[in-house]
């Protein structure tokens, strides 16, 4: 993959580091290339026609990344539309997740036979805006953030917690087909292994005959970005 007119498409140089080899990560840094916008498939173009330009571009670029990922899995290009809760509708045989924030768009896709669900999220590595933390966190999570910040004030732990929760929701939704509130999972961030675990505080969905009680994920801070990722492997048969 290579340069695309200003934005750089990579084979997941950053995101790929926090996902297993079974997941294909494709990301785009820099300005949105017009080329990706025109690469929208007709059904997608119709879906996003009424949106503002910024939204049309992120929508197009992230799908450009997703199609590159699907191609790497040997799947033909298809429109990636959205379901009733805005979840991406992946082609049969694939699972995946997408994210976009200023200067970054990424998709992670895998074979459904190998991976049950994926959740990825990117955020600017900046503190959360005032007032957000109390809305998205639980008491015990805020206590843990204070400890983390005391040891490492350079990492934006509040933003990391938020991103981990967004990844949890994106991984949860395709399995549960239901809402999950910020208070319905409790996250622990591991500053040494750069991993996180999410304990579900509501009954989890069943996966391969076992009830899921949480998710394990990884995180990375790089070039002013904070990335979180979850990939749940299928049970060995
Ligand atoms: C859905 C949500 C996670 C998306 O986050 P966002 O801030 O818009 O940011 P991102 O750019 O990282 O992600 C957007 C992408 O998420 C994906 N997405 C949206 N809804 C989704 C869902 N229900 N399931 C899976 N993926 C979803 C889409 O691909 C979307 O991009 P698109 O509209 O271009 O297709 C967020 O808006 C939200 O509703 N959060 C509340 C639920 C939550 O986080 N609970 C915490 C549980 S612990």
What's this model, at a glance?
This protein has 6 helices and 12 strands. The protein is α+β, with helices and mostly antiparallel strands and 237 residues long. The protein folds into 2 domains: 111 residues, 4'-phosphopantetheinyl transferase domain (Ribosomal Protein L22, Chain A); 113 residues, Ribosomal Protein L22, Chain A.
Which features does this protein show?
single chain, 237 residues, alpha+beta, Ribosomal Protein L22, Chain A, five-stranded antiparallel beta sheet, globular, disordered N terminus
Explain what the structure shows:
With 237 residues, this protein is an alpha+beta fold. The protein is built from six helices and twelve strands. The protein folds into two domains: 3-113, 4'-phosphopantetheinyl transferase domain (Ribosomal Protein L22, Chain A); 121-233, Ribosomal Protein L22, Chain A, CATH 3.90.470. A five-stranded antiparallel sheet has the order 1-2-3-5-4, covered by helices on one side. Strands 6-12-11-8-7 form a five-stranded antiparallel sheet. A hairpin with a 2-residue loop joins strand 4 (94-101) and strand 5. The longest helix is centred in the first third of the chain and has 20 residues, at 53-72. It starts with a strand and ends with a strand. Bound molecules: coenzyme A. Coenzyme A binds next to helix 3, strand 4 and helix 6.
């Amino acid at each position: 993959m290579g340069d695309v007119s200003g934005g750089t498409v990579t084979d997941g140089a950053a995101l790929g580091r926090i996902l297993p080899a079974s997941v294909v990560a494709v990301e785009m840094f820099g300005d949105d290339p017009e080329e990706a916008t025109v690469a929208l498939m007709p059904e997608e173009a119709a879906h996003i026609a009424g949106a503002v330009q910024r939204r049309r571009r992120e929508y197009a670029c992230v799908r450009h990344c997703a199609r590159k990922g699907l191609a790497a899995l040997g799947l033909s290009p298809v429109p990636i539309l959205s379901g009733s809760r805005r979840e991406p509708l992946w082609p049969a045989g694939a699972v995946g997740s997408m994210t976009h924030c200023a200067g970054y768009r990424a998709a992670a896709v895998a074979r459904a036979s190998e991976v049950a669900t994926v959740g990825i999220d990117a955020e600017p590595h900046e503190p959360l805006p005032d007032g957000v933390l109390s809305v998205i966190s639980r008491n015990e999570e805020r206590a843990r953030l204070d400890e983390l910040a005391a040891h490492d004030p350079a990492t934006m732990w509040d933003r990391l917690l938020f991103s981990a929760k967004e990844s949890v929701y994106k991984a949860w939704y395709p399995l549960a087909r239901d809402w999950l509130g910020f208070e319905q999972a409790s996250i622990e961030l591991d500053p040494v292994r750069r991993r996180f675990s999410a304990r579900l505080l509501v009954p989890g969905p069943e996966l391969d005959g076992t009830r899921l009680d949480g998710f394990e994920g990884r995180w990375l801070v790089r070039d002013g970005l904070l990335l979180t990722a979850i990939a749940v492997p299928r049970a060995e048969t």
